[in-house]
Amino acid sequence: MRIEGYAALFGAADLMGDVVRAGAFMASLARRNEPLPMLVEHERRLLAGFWTDVHEDARGLWLSGEISDDQPGAARAKRLLARGVDGLSIGFIPLVSQHAGHGRVLTEIELLEVSIVMHPMQPQARLTLAREFTRAA
Questions:
Q1: The domain containing residue 108 runs over which residues?
Q2: Could you read off the pLDDT of 92-117 as tens digits, one per residue?
Q3: What is the pairing mode between strands 127-131 and 2-9?
């Protein structure tokens, strides 16, 4: 199953008041040598697949990936999607940030994983597409 969407939107405060700035993921993505893990609810034991296309655009952090049936979290991820769950959430380490208001302005982030979640911290971080597909044999 192929899924895609925005895991973070630039300039939009999350429920904790944090705001991600454009460019915050660039260095982390440049350092990454392996596909980004796709987890369910940030549970390491529930790896559902990998995000294979991850990049910043004018709106935010866009990604596309595949739920792999051979992964331990795949069935749970598919059940959540079937129930209409479409939230995305980033697992990260803030490298450069400054306090602002009730939260932080995040200008450099080490991206560790992106999870499918029921309640995203950034309410606009959502899947825009989830579809089954077949591969040529």
A1: 2-126
A2: 999 999 998 889 999 999 999 999 99
A3: antiparallel
pLDDT tens, the chain, 137 aa long: 999 999 999 999 999 999 999 999 999 999 999 999 999 999 999 999 999 999 999 999 999 999 999 999 999 999 999 999 999 999 999 999 999 888 999 999 999 999 999 999 999 999 998 766 434 33
Give one DSSP letter per residue of 51-67, joined into a string.
Answer: EEEEEE-SSEEEEEEEE
Total of domains in the chain: 1
Is 39 inside a domain boundary? yes
Structure tokens at 20: 């991600």
DSSP-assigned letters across all residues of the chain: -EEEEEEEETT---TTS-EEPTTTTHHHHHH--SPEEEEETTEEEEEEEEEEEEEE-SSEEEEEEEE-TTSTTHHHHHHHHHTT--EEEEEEEEEEEEEETTEEEEEEEEEEEEEEESS-SSTT-BEEEEE------
Q: How far is CA 88 from the centre of its chain?
A: 5
